[in-house]
Amino acid sequence: MKQPVFALVDCNNFYASCEKLFRPDLRNTPVVVLSNNDGCVVARSKEAKALGIKMGVPVHHIKQEIRQHGIQLFSSNYTLYGDMSHRVMMTLEAMAPKVDVYSIDEAFLDLTGLERLMSYQNFGQQAKDTVHQNVGLPVCVGIAPTRTLAKLANYAAKKYPATGGVVDLTNPARQRRLLARVPVDEVWGVGRKIASRLQAMNIVTAIQLADTDLATLRKRFSVVLERTARELNGVPCLPWEDAPPPKKQIMCSRSFGQPVYALANLEEAVTHFATRATEKLRGGQQYAGELMVFIRTNPFKSTVPQYSKSASVRFISASQDSRVIVQHAMNLLRSIYRDGFEYAKAGVMLSELTDDSALQDDLFGSSEIGTAHSARSERLMSVIDEINRKSRAKICMARETGPAVYAMRREHLSPAYTTDWGELPRVL
DNA sequence: TCTGGGGTCCTAGGACCC
DNA sequence: TCTGGGGTCCTAGGACCC
User: Fold this and answer.
1) Is A329 helix (H, G, I), strand (E, B) or coil?
2) What are residue A73's DSSP bridge partners?
3) Are residues A215 and A125 in the same domain?
4) Are A154 and A195 part of one and the same domain?
5) Where are the alpha helices (DSSP H) in A185-262?
6) What confidence tens digit (pLDDT) does each residue in A202-233 have?
7) Half-sphere exposure at residue A418, Cβ-oriented, CA atoms within 13 angstroms
8) Protein footprint on strand C: which nucleotides are under 7 Å from a CB?
């Protein structure tokens, strides 16, 4: 059996790089991208990192630095990032037979057997150059016999400029040298909690984790960390996903741009979330068997009374009809709503997802609108989806209309450069 | 004043069965 | 009076990822 080889291609500072791409005037300016509601920092350009801006800090904590260094702020523009991501992935899919899109800004490539054609180092360089030429975004490439090591190789490619952004870690001696230099909390799968527990056991570098007795890791932690240690030793333990596995749950939730008090306003928000979640459901040709709705106040705001509640319902037969799911969501919301609280967030979750073939008929007949076997419901939903895809005038639930009081703050939003004819960048 | 959103997997513990 | 032990299913909670 041939030893597998994986590459991890990961975009550098993805969101910040997307924003910079369309603003050449900001080439050397520190840029940060903010989370929804312009809350905290979720991406930083290299200039912003050099200023010591940390990932995840609330933006109000760095007001001083923003003023002092002229840091440019951007609200999250997922329409733009999603489209740029798609372009990167298309480029990679043209270069390798098997590509596993792991997140919006990174993908694993199966390079097993490639060595007969070219060196891994060459391939990595080619991938990096091609993405840059086709899409304009910078990436780094890490190559290794397991995905955990490929992640680590990618970390090195980013951290050490002398690598030119490409690290081939197929050589075991080279693996050991890198492992000895990397802090254990940089290992994929080791988060804050586990890192501090490992520290208490005097395990502070990746190589110490790799050399720890596997049975001890399983006993003191879990099979997950044991697998991580095996992967660091070059033994692949993570299955390759040729196709993305079907989703098990679909969430749609948002913090509000301003406090919400009235039931009517929560109804509007929850209607919106339930509608979006159900659209995602249909996008994956799935049906939901269970719906959960939650509302809560802002737990960070200790000056106001706190309230947090969720409720859920199991459907008699699974549905993908927005009208059915919104109606259930309204019932749940009204059952948990209490007057007199300052609501900060709400959301819905669809679960018990099944695909078409797994559906069973409702024992009591399918008279309810939108049950699995209602052909009318399916046709109506697909017409709505079609119209919403093509046109700017959306079809939506009556409760969704009008300006939303809960709309999120996006004061620094960039244009939809690549997905809206009206916002194409102009070259003067 | 201000603190994201959307996921997955694993484990422990309780209920229940034989 | 004795009060086993293995298996399964479910749920809540914790940890991780980007």
Assistant:
1) helix
2) A32
3) no
4) no
5) 192-200, 206-210, 214-220, 223-232
6) 999 999 999 999 999 999 999 999 999 999 99
7) 16
8) 14-18
d(CA A175, CA A168): 9
A207, A305: one domain: no
User: What is the total count of domains within chain A?
Assistant: 3
CA of A105 vs C1' of B3, distance in Å? 24
Does A111 share its domain with A15?
yes
**Protein CB footprint (7 Å) on chain B nucleotides:** 1-11
Is any atom of nucleic acid chain C found less than 7 Å from the CB of residue A392? no
Residue A423 in any domain: the answer is no
- CB crowding A116-135: b at 16 or more within 10 Å, else e: eeeebbebbbebbeebeeeb
Domain CATH code at residue A284: 3.30.1490.100
A217: Cβ under 7 Å from strand B?
no
**Residues belonging to chain A:** 428
Residues 188-207 of A, Cβ under 7 A from nucleic strand C: 188-195
Closest nucleotide relative to residue A40's CA, C1' based: B3
**Which range marks the domain in which residue A205 is found?**
171-245
Whether CB of A229 is under 7 Å from strand B: the answer is no
**Does strand C come within 7 Å of the CB of A89?**
no
- A106: nt with nearest C1' to CA: C18
Span A41-80, pLDDT tens digits: 999 999 999 999 999 999 999 999 999 999 999 999 999 9
- Can you give the pTM of this predicted structure? 0.91
The position carrying tokens 């007949």 is: A365
In a domain, A421, yes or no: no
Tokens 């609280």 belong to A341
| A102 CB-to-strand C distance under 7 Å | yes
Mean pLDDT throughout A113-139? 97
Q: What percent of chain A has pLDDT over 70?
A: 93
Separation between the CA of A34 and the C1’ of B4 (whole angstroms)? 9
pLDDT digits 0-9 by tens, A272-300? 999 999 999 999 999 999 999 999 999 88
Nearest to A238 by CA among A248, A223, A249: A223
A293's enclosing H/E stretch is strand A286-297
Cα distance between residue A150 and residue A127, in whole Å: 15
